Amino acid sequence: MGITRFPTVEKCTSEGREKHTVVADLDGTLLRNRNSFPYLALVAFDVYGVLRLLFLLLVLPLAGILYYLVSESAGIQVIIFTTFVGMKVSDIESAARAVLPKFYSEDLHPESWRVFSACRKRCVLTATPRIMVEAFLKDYIGVDIVLGTEIETYKGRATGFVKSPGVLIGKKKADILLTAFGETQPEIGLGDRDTDIPFMTLCKERYYVPPNPKVKAVTIDKLPKPIIFHDGRLVQKPTPLMALFIILWIPFGFLLSCLRIMSAAFLPTPLHYYAFRALGVRLTVKGNPPPPKKSKDQSGVLFVCCHRTLLDAVFLSTVLGRPIPTVTYSLSRFSEIIAPLKTIRLTRDRATDAFVMKKILEEGDLLICPEGTTSREPFLLRFSSLFAELTDELVPVAMVNKMSMFHGTTARGWKWMDSFFFLMNPRPSYEITFLDKLPYGFTCKSGKSSHEVANYIQKVIAETLSYKCTTLTRKDKYIALAGNDGTVMKKP
């Protein structure tokens, strides 16, 4: 009968568990997905790119044969070796902290989470390398103890092999659980396959999590901590079929992105809209765009938008039909060269930056995207207050972009590739909403402080996008994801 002799997790009550300890397997138990390949593929692509992803996909059939015909341990070892061999430990830890939590959080099993979250002490026991899962389990869902397979390292790099006692399967799970808990017997054990039985028998109550691909994941609002910051290039979880499609698409997608970039670089701005439309880029405009400056005495309009990608200014100029200069705190040299618009790098000296932007506004319109103000999740970071002091001609712009394969931003990778990755999507889209010009009563001239004006603009953009405002800053974002303040240093 195997594990099916145990009652299912639906029969486990979550009431009165405040002082209890729960021990759960990860793949197929705490997570709906029984296969760890998509998460290993995310690490492989994030650290070493498409070639490592291709290598991992080619090895998958061999790993499957070993898994089902020889032993689970042998199959998992092959996948671990292929994924990690040669990688810097710091890169693996970075991917585990910045990339994986979003995908793990979207895969939590509702019944397992109901029981797991009700207990005071939580332990996860998994064959997946601990280095991959510990950041998510401890930082986001409050796991106290993570017992996973340990990888071998040499001079800061993974060798691809695993440390003794090997991959945590079957009796090895029970042995490491005994080492961790000693004579203390956990109240609840959750598992999904026969190899989980040895550790489950060490618990007072044992419950089986049956496979059910149709079960809906735990909703975001039920997680103890929201995931605000997320990095990585892939939009979707790379199942084997999706990974194959990504590998086959990248060569064609890169050529398509180059064509899209060249159309913006060499065609006049009024023709950009038609060129993008012909090349599969969808642009949607809402609201009433302000007309261009009509006289020298009139101040230009300062557009304030939530930052999405480096292409914000390009698409804003496209829908307005005229080039709009933009300012940025951080831009790679290559991105600066291929930019079809005038781009001004700010110095972080408030007085100098204000002087430069006022000069530009005397000549025409200007776009400022407080970089990093939008996370990939429905949150807005705190806006800088500098722009509020420049002019009263402030027009908030809410931007939404949609991608099916690749994210067009990164905090940890090659930022000069951001535009290419966004335009490598088969049908990328931008929705640009022009909000009403800021009323006089909400400008600095009416007596409002620059911080009040910035907070008001953040609020109206957030309401338009149905996002939540936060007090987190761009610096917080880069420290969380990349361990730096996000500045791209300009070489002398």
UniProtKB/TrEMBL annotation:
Catalysed reaction equations from the record: sn-glycerol 3-phosphate + an acyl-CoA = a 1-acyl-sn-glycero-3-phosphate + CoA
What's a Gene Ontology MF term here?
A: glycerol-3-phosphate O-acyltransferase activity
Per the UniProt entry, what is one GO biological process?
Answer: cutin biosynthetic process
Name all Phospholipid/glycerol acyltransferase domain ranges: 301-402
One Pfam family matching this protein? Acyltransferase
Give the top-rank taxon of the lineage listed in the UniProt record for this protein: Eukaryota
Q: What is its main location?
A: membrane
Regarding the membrane, this protein is recorded as:
Multi-pass membrane protein
The record, for InterPro entries, names:
HAD-like_sf (IPR036412), HAD_RAM2/GPAT1-8 (IPR056462), HAD_sf (IPR023214), Plipid/glycerol_acylTrfase (IPR002123)
Q: What does this protein do?
A: Involved in the production of cutin monomers. Esterifies acyl-group from acyl-ACP to the sn-2 position of glycerol-3-phosphate, a step in cutin biosynthesis. Required for colonization of the root by mycorrhizal fungi, and appropriate hyphopodia and arbuscule formation. Cutin monomers act as plant signals that promote colonization by arbuscular mycorrhizal fungi. This signaling function has been recruited by pathogenic oomycetes to facilitate appressoria formation and their own invasion.
- What is this protein's record name? Glycerol-3-phosphate acyltransferase RAM2
Chain's gene name:
LOC107779334
